[in-house]
Design a protein that fits this description.
Layout: E1 2-6, H1 11-23, E2 28-33, E3 53-57, H2 63-73, E4 77-80, H3 87-92, H4 95-115, E5 119-125, H5 152-171, E6 175-180, E7 182-184, H6 193-202, E8 207-210, E9 216-221, H7 222-235, E10 241-244, E11 249-251, H8 252-263, E12 270-273, H9 288-294, H10 302-315, H11 317-323, H12 327-336
Parallel strand pairs: 1-2, 1-4, 2-3, 4-5, 5-6, 6-10, 7-9, 8-12
Antiparallel strand pairs: 9-11
Bound molecules: nicotinamide-adenine-dinucleotide and thymidine-5'-diphosphate.
Nicotinamide-adenine-dinucleotide (NAD) binds at residues 6-7, 9-13, 33-36, 38-39, 59-61, 81-85, 100, 104, 123, 125, 157, 180, 182-183, 189.
Length: 339
């Protein structure tokens, strides 16, 4: 089996590559990544010399490059993680989200049609369902919940999902889609909540909590997400959507407090800042379908996963230190200085 993993130099894609090389040592894994600000070859350092692994730098929206790779590798499975993934950046500059997340997805699927594949898997997000009210803890996103997006990011992901289902219906492309809740774990880019708060706390810098910190996200340890995708690409039904989440809802402020406690830092570092535009209130996944059909259950409890993640950032300063220099500093200044 040859599997092309797009976006494999990013957070979840890299964890998925490690998972696949471990769980399927007879597979060939080809990573296709443009290496945007979020892609980092240092993340893949430990597998670069693995004979079952190949890295190719290319844009998923570059038709010639994508077709050339399919011609050469004749892949069986495509797992598309490549995306612009940060809501705040999408609010500043939506266009690149449309190009990568929608056009890129269509180019990949055109290549799948042209060269033939066994499975195209689209890594999507619970954000395509929009948000749930804070005062209705009985409500969850199921696969039947209508798409109702809030940000340019989630809209571009929803557009891609619709296109994937259209390629199934129109061309019979063997597709699956997973819609996962917020992930956390090693190699998470420090623009996102958990790594940003860990790294700021380590520097005794203010922890910028949007609004009152009451927004709720449903957190899943990244390895649990990777196992879910592995199950879906092998045993999931073609044309189906699978929600992935572990019933682990947390308010942002409570996560920030947990991080400070774990690091032995003062809560005085918490700074409430201007809220995100269109900020989704609550995400909460109903994972009954993937449990029922594929037997998937999350394995890592949030308290353990958060401790492991904090430990990882403490032990891997050599990974994140270069990431937060240069361009990241400019980004941070622009997004947070006047907030
Ligand atoms: P990330 O931003 O950490 O990584 C994205 C990767 O894609 C980077 O390596 C980047 O270089 C690459 N990339 C970007 N544009 C590309 C292009 N045009 N061509 C090729 N490569 C390109 O993102 P992540 O958090 O690992 O998310 C991966 C996927 O999972 C995304 O599709 C995202 O929508 C989805 N998702 C993420 C979460 C989460 O909590 N992070 C939750 C659910 C779903
Ligand atoms: P984020 O990690 O950007 O993921 P998403 O918006 O895709 O869920 O943000 C998670 C939550 O944390 C979200 O409600 C916004 C909030 N947040 C802050 O309060 N401060 C920050 O600096 C960041 C990056 C996020």
């Amino acid at each position: 089996m040859t599997v092309i993993v797009t976006g494999g130099a990013g957070f979840i894609g890299s964890n998925f590559i490690f998972h696949m090389l471990d769980s399927h040592p007879d597979y060939r894994i080809v990573c296709l990544d443009k290496l945007t600000y979020a892609g980092n070859l240092a993340t893949l350092e430990s597998v670069m010399d693995n004979p079952s692994f190949r890295f190719v730098r290319a844009d998923i929206a570059d038709r010639d490059a994508v077709y050339a790779l399919f011609e050469e590798e004749k892949p069986d499975i495509i797992v598309n993680f490549a995306a612009e993934s940060h809501v705040d950046r999408s609010i500043e500059n939506p266009e690149i989200f449309l190009k990568t997340n929608i056009i890129g997805t269509s180019v990949l699927m055109d290549a799948c049609r042209k060269y033939g594949i066994k499975r195209y898997h689209q890594v999507s997000t619970d954000e395509v369902y929009g948000d749930l009210p804070l005062d209705r803890p009985d409500l969850f996103f199921t696969e039947e919940t209508p798409l109702h997006t809030s940000s340019p990011y989630s809209s571009s992901k929803a557009g891609a999902d619709l296109l994937v289902l259209a390629y199934y219906r129109t061309y019979g492309l063997p597709v699956t889609i997973s819609r996962c809740s917020n992930n956390y774990g090693p190699y998470h880019f420090p623009e996102k909540l958990i790594p940003l708060m860990i790294i700021n706390a380590l520097h005794d810098k203010p922890l910028p909590v949007y609004g009152k910190g009451e927004n709720v996200r449903d957190w899943l340890y990244v390895e649990d997400h990777c196992r879910a995708i592995d199950l879906i690409i092998h045993n999931g039904r073609v044309g189906e959507v699978y929600n992935v989440g572990g019933h682990n809802e947390m308010r942002n402020i409570d996560i920030v407090r947990l991080i400070l406690k774990e690091l032995g830092k003062s809560e005085d570092l918490i700074t409430f800042v201007t809220d995100r535009k269109g900020h989704d209130l609550r995400y909460a996944i109903d994972p009954a379908k993937i449990h029922r059909e594929l037997g998937w259950l999350p394995e890592t409890k949030f308290s353990d996963g958060l401790k492991k993640t904090i430990r990882w950032y403490l032990d891997n300063e050599s990974w994140w230190r270069p990431v937060i220099s240069g361009e990241y500093q400019e980004y941070y200044e622009k997004m947070y200085s006047c907030r």
